[in-house]
């Protein structure tokens, strides 16, 4: 199977599905966006009707929607499909959507393509699994859909049949999707908010539509808990064991404190003064966001920055047991930190941004879920190589050199030192993630 980048998951009491999942975004070709109110500026010097412009715009939009990354297997042919998406219910394989008349979408027309993006139904009416992020793509304008379609059918046909999904009963029954759709799917193009700026509307259109950011980032939740609504909100990406923080909650991503240029750097370069991206978000930046224009990235940052913070209930004061655990692990954690981590992240936790991210006051390591910092320490990683940061710095893995207890100690240390507000983690938490898939 190919690298597992995408997933989905979660069940609903009705027995339905809920693919939550994961994606990545786009990349581009210098193009421009649509001519509606959510459009970016038109390309200088070219008539909007030029065929080349249309195809370039379509490619740009397809990268913004990450169609390419999802519908192209690693080392596979463009739009040939075949990428495996692991879910708790089995594996979905992305279909061939090349211009091939037999195996791809070569016989579709622009109306049918728009209808599919808009309604989540294939050409013959088959209900699509939401691993295809139509719940977000329904926001895409007709003009943008047409440009993408024109581009896609201009690419070479790939004469390879789509691989059938391998889903367990009852998830292989598409009729279950009716329940999912009635709970979670609201059809409709993006409607600009006249009270907000053109830039904000452009950002909202991209984030809520093609960007399908909410497939991974949703409101804070109980980690894919048992209720249907919470399940879909889940920030923990099933099977992948990465946590996508809420982008609105101050306790999570906490973008409230970030400046617009800092958010834009993170999205486009993959590194910033505040932190770096890693895990599935690094793929989103690599495959998609780094290719977007400066204007579109800034618009997205403007929109993200404006999202209201949901403060929720204040955190309960730590129990005595938690405090004792922290006090027990902290000194060991500090010792390990000073010996193994301070060289890059500095003793005061300020790092050397943008290449060595700060750990002090970095919300991405203070979240309730400690999955991400534990995995970073176990596996290390690289920020993505991007046009604006072509030679990213890396962090070494510590899975071989530190015991579960030592991992727990150092992660507890970075989550609670320097007035960070995280909670301690246990050796069991660390152990559980040793077997997580490296994407
Ligand atoms: C997260 C991965 C993912 C992304 C991103 C994604 N798709 Fe899909 N797509 C899928 C999967 C999985 C299916 C199959 C769904 C099913 O069988 O119900 C699918 C189905 C489709 C189909 C239906 C094919 C058919 O024969 O019925 C089309 C067309 C399509 N995608 C186009 C696109 C376009 C255009 C984009 C970008 C705007 C895109 N996809 C982005 C995963 C993805
Ligand atoms: C495939 C799932 C996935 C998709 C799609 C995705 N993200 Fe993420 N994102 C993550 C994960 C996991 C993290 C945590 C790792 C990290 O901070 O790099 C994250 C982190 C972030 C952060 C950093 C938060 C912080 O505090 O450091 C921002 C900002 C962000 N994402 C914005 C976006 C935007 C905007 C989009 C849509 C254009 C998007 N993401 C799409 C999975 C995803
Ligand atoms: C050789 C330099 C180096 C060392 C040593 C190092 N790191 Fe890192 N660390 C990095 C780099 C570079 C990144 C960004 C990687 C990425 O984006 O994938 C990073 C990222 C992180 C992150 C995620 C930061 C964020 O923005 O959310 C955490 C947590 C972390 N390191 C903890 C540690 C701990 C704990 C140790 C010691 C056990 C350590 N690091 C040792 C270089 C280092």
Order of helices and strands: HHEEHHHEHHHEEHHHHHHEEHH
Overall 3D geometry? globular
Helix content: 25-40%
Mean pLDDT: 82
Total number of beta strands:
7
Tally of separate helices: 16
Tell me the radius of gyration. 22 Å
% residues in beta strands: under 5%
The hetero molecules present are: heme C
Structural class: mainly alpha
Q: Which sequence of strands runs across the widest sheet?
A: 1-2-3
Write down the oligomeric state. Answer: single chain
Taking the alpha carbons of the first and last residues, their distance comes to 12 Å
Show unreliable segments.
Answer: 1-36, 41-46, 219-234
The gist of it:
This protein is mainly alpha-helical. It is 36% helix and 4% strand. Helix 1 packs across helix 5 (142-152), helix 7 (198-208) packs across helix 11 and helix 9 (260-269) crosses helix 11.
Description:
The chain is mainly alpha-helical and 439 residues long. It contains 16 helices and seven strands. The strands form three sheets. It has a three-stranded antiparallel sheet, with no helix packed on it. Strands 4-5 form a two-stranded antiparallel sheet. A two-stranded antiparallel sheet has the order 6-7. Helix 3 packs across helix 5 and helix 12 packs across helix 15. The radius of gyration is 22 Å and the shape is globular. The N terminus is likely disordered. The site of one heme C has 28 residues, from helix 12, helix 13, helix 14, strand 6 and strand 7.
